[in-house]
Amino acid sequence: MGDNKQADTQLVSKNTPEHTVDLQVAPCDGSETDSDCEHKFVFPLRHELPPHDYLRFILTVWYSPETSSSIADMMTRVYNEAQLKVLLTSPMDVVLMKSRKFFLELNI
Question: Taxonomically, which superkingdom (predicted)?
Fold first, then answer.
C-alpha cells in the first residue's frame, strides 16, 4: 500500500520570551542534500506581535505603510499597551474611527 507521509510529520514547539512558534516537520530519511529531503515547515502557526506593530499592520488596510507607521506611533504615545490591546480586539470600524483623529493631526 502507499505510504502516508503525513503520518511521519511531527509537531515541534519553539518557545522564546517574545512568542511561541509551532513548526510542522517531516523527517528526512538519510538524504545527501536538502533538495532530496521531503520536509515541510508551517511557520508560524502562532505568533504574537507587539500591539504597536499589529496596529501598524492593521492600519495598512486604509493608509500607506508610512502613514500607518506614523499613526501607530502617535497612538502608542497616547494609549498605553493595555488600551492598545483592547483597541485591537475592537471591531475594525472602531479602529478606523480612532485612527482618523490621528490622521487629521498629521496634516497630510
Answer: Eukaryota
